[in-house]
Amino acid sequence: MKAIDEALGGVEFGRFRLLPHRRELRADGVAVERGRRAFDILMVLTEARGALVTKDEILSRVWPDTVVEENNLVVQISTLRKALGEDRDFIRTVSGRGYRFVGEIRTSVPASEAETRVDRGADAEATPSAPSSSLPRPISGLIGRGTELE
Description:
The protein has helices spanning 2-8, 36-47, 55-62, 70-84, 111-120, 146-149, and strands at 10-13, 16-19, 24-27, 30-31, 53-54, 91-94, 98-101, 105-108. By secondary structure, it is of the alpha+beta class. It is elongated and about 70 Å long.
């Protein structure tokens, strides 16, 4: 699974790595326990890249077909801050308006792409790369099927 995660990249901030395709938050390489709604809120906040996200926008994106009260949002923000631990200040409350994610967000480069850039050096940006895929690269060729291939 780690190879798939690395192939797909993710978003990093501080000591955390957010893997949207796996709906996983990792701190120093270890999965962080948090709820589904808290994860959805973190996604909304990090996608905004530091911009204010109103309470109404969060409610409509995280609970699209459900009417919920604002205290549900407050509980989920609290859960998310608890999961972030000492980095809880990455999420700022803008009183009466919404929330803002203030951590420096970096887009993770998939491992295969990073290796290609290192191997090619300066020519990496000039040469088009192969089409991207969410499937991992094969580890080795076909084994034990030589007769069938011939």
